[in-house]
Amino acid sequence: MVDAGEIAQLAIDITQLAIGVRPHVLLATETDWGWTTETGDRLADDRAPDPFLISWLAEQRGALFSADLDAVPPDLRELVTTLFERHDAIALVPIGSVDELIGLVIVPSSARRLRGRPLAFLERTAERLAEALLHARMAKRAATRASLAREVELAATVQGELLPGKGPHVHGDITVIGSWQPATRCAGDFWCVYPLGDGRVLVAIGDVTGHGVASAMVTAAAIGACDVFVRRSGAKLQLTELTAALDIAVRRVGGGELAMTCFAAILDPTAREIRFVSCGHTAPYLCRPTDKLVELHALVGRGNPLGSGVPTVPKVLQRPLQADDLVVWYTDGVIEAQDPAGTAFGDRRFQQLLKRLDRTRLTPAQVHDLVQAGVAAHRAGHPLADDETVVVAQLSPPLPASLEPSREASS
Predict the structure, then answer these.
(1) pLDDT per position as a tens digit, 351-407
(2) Is there a single domain that holds both residue 343 and residue 220?
(3) Are residues 168 and 306 both part of a single domain?
(4) Residue of 38, 217, 46 lying closest to 129 (CA atoms)
(5) At CA 105, angle to CA 78 and CA 24, rounded to 5?
(6) Is residue 136 located within the same domain as residue 168?
(7) Same-domain status, 254 and 327
(8) CATH no. for residue 176?
């Protein structure tokens, strides 16, 4: 891709061949008020056009001569004179587009005075140079956007590889199924599942503020920290220590600008309980089938979001588990999903959906798919406003005595 400096040097060469005058070109930078030469060298501030001149020069069409400054407003005349002197120039030709000054063609004092056709050629060259420089800027911006799109695609691919698949993930008596749907190519949600030994299973779910590449970087850091902590701790894992490790990871990567809600739980089929901590996350539901209906028990915990700069230790809570109990985790994108009229799915609708579950057919896959279908039906094609993550786990009933392995066979 040809850059602005190469275009400017080509214009200089053409001008020299056509009219025997070799000018210089000053180029305005896009990122600040600075200027460069055609070779890309940064121009010293005392040699650059004064900022007070920029808007006036942008409005000028045609050459401005050092010997004829009557057209210059009196309050700007000294600044224009200084610009001529600093570059030992006899003429300046603004390179502009609409009301933007892109550059200046500087005609040195060693050149003969421009008149007639040579002057007209120089002014037309400045016009064509402005068009070429604008095209170069557009091409550069397009290339930057394409590069960013590739980076976003790569980030999304990496994030997808870090998260577990939908499943089912079967660890002894615990079966887990989960999924996430990003609102953009990269998500701020994550979830994970790990066996801890002795039949126990860790399930964690999190939601970083916002979505996109920045949020995806924080979720990647959280997943990595979770992986490392589980490997180090193994069966001795403590939930409060896990959230402390995640808090450090979120603060380091998020720089204090991003926070993450998190809910981490250990399902223990032997002790028939679930132990959990909540760091500002939406409360999951424990779904328990009874003779007549499905009971809902919200797993409410209190704690500050991670990375928020408020290092508090969340309280570890516990609830008993029974055979066939399900736990349904979700992120706030689920209950905040909007229909085309802007109405949110809401907590009450979500609770009613869970209460209407068929108690005789409660399986993680069916519950997961029912929740997703219910939210999708509510959105009715309306795009996701936030990432949506749903995770369902179930404690399987014990095997009948006739199917349990005998002690002789197992010894």
Answers:
(1) 999 988 877 677 899 999 999 999 999 999 888 888 899 999 999 875 444 434 433
(2) yes
(3) yes
(4) 38
(5) 105
(6) no
(7) yes
(8) 3.60.40.10
**Rounded Cα distance, 308 and 164, in Å:** 26
Rounded Cα distance, 51 and 74, in Å: 16
Encode burial over 259-272: b for 16+ CB neighbours within 10 A, e otherwise.
bbbbbbbbbbbeee
- Output the CA–CA distances (angstroms, integers) from residue 344 to 313, 379, 384, in the order listed: 32, 9, 11
Which H, E and C letters describe the chain, residue by residue? CCCHHHHHHHHHHHHHHHHCCCCEEEEECCCCCCEEECCCCECCHHHCCCHHHHHHHHHCCCCEECCECCCCCHHHHHHHHHHHHHCCEEEEEEEEECCEEEEEEEEECCCCCCCHHHHHHHHHHHHHHHHHHHHHHHHHHHHHHHHHHHHHHHHHHHHHHHCCCCCCEEECCEEEEEEEECCCCCCCEEEEEEEEECCEEEEEEEEECCCCHHHHHHHHHHHHHHHHHHHHHHHHCCHHHHHHHHHHHHHHHHCCCCCEEEEEEEEECCCCEEEEEEEECCCCEEEEECCCCEEEEECCCCCCCECCCCCCCCCCEEEECCCCCEEEEECHHHHCCECCCCCECCHHHHHHHHHCCCHHHCCHHHHHHHHHHHHHHHHCCCCCCCCEEEEEEEECCCCCHHHCCCHHHHC
Total of domains in the chain: 2
Is 405 part of a structural domain of the chain?
Answer: no
pLDDT tens digits for 267-291?
Answer: 999 999 999 999 999 999 999 988 8
Closest CA to 219 of 205, 201, 233, 239: 205
Tokens, residue 323: 């055979």
Of the two residues 70 and 400, the one the predictor is more confident about is 70
Count Cβ atoms below 10 Å from residue 85 Cβ, excluding itself. Answer: 11
Residue 271, phi then psi, degrees to nearest 5? -80, -5
Give CA–CA dist 154/113, Å, rounded: 57
Spell out the residues 6+ positions from residue 98 whose beta carbon is closer than 8 angstroms to its own. Answer: none
Angle CA 227–231–232, to nearest 5: 120
Type of residue at 213: V
Q: 185 and 139 in one domain?
A: no
How far is CA 206 from each of CA 210, 244, 278, 299, 346, rounded to the nearest angstrom?
12, 14, 10, 15, 19
Q: Tell me if 106 sits within 8 A of 122, measured CB to CB.
A: no
